[in-house]
TrEMBL record:
Protein name: Small ribosomal subunit protein uS9
InterPro entries xref list: Ribosomal_Su5_D2-typ_SF, Ribosomal_uS9, Ribosomal_uS9_bac/plastid, Ribosomal_uS9_CS, Ribsml_uS5_D2-typ_fold_subgr
Gene Ontology, cellular component aspect: cytosolic small ribosomal subunit
SUPFAM superfamilies according to UniProt: Ribosomal protein S5 domain 2-like
Region spans: Disordered: 112-134
Organism: Candidatus Uhrbacteria bacterium RIFCSPHIGHO2_01_FULL_63_20
PROSITE patterns, A to Z: RIBOSOMAL_S9
Gene: rpsI
Basic residues: compositionally biased ranges: 115-134
Amino acid sequence: MAETKDNQYYGLGRRKTSTARVHLTPGGTGKVTVNGKDLSKYFGTDILRQNVIRPFTTVGMEGKFDVNAATEGGGITGQADAIRLGISRALLEFNPDYRAVLKKSRFLTRDARKRERKKYGKKGARRSPQWAKR
């Protein structure tokens, strides 16, 4: 996670089975692109859109970076959280002083929860088949 060519900052984020590779370009207009689409086109709900750009509002840098994110795997919510983690890590590369603020807001924590596998003899991960006593 270091500064890349053309003064870009890179961050990798993961959540569930989603992975996001995020490049921040300082001095931009605040344009966020996910897999070649605009943020509002890619994420339908406003909550997910706000969740993605929340690290910028936390450190007071909204509208000062252009974001280019490439996501793969998982669903929309997992991808949104993966992008948020990638943005937070890239902001750390830009300015290490943001660590305290981002850590307090829990944006640097990788959410390790994953889907639990289905077990044999069960209907799902934990649900047992219906049982009749008599």
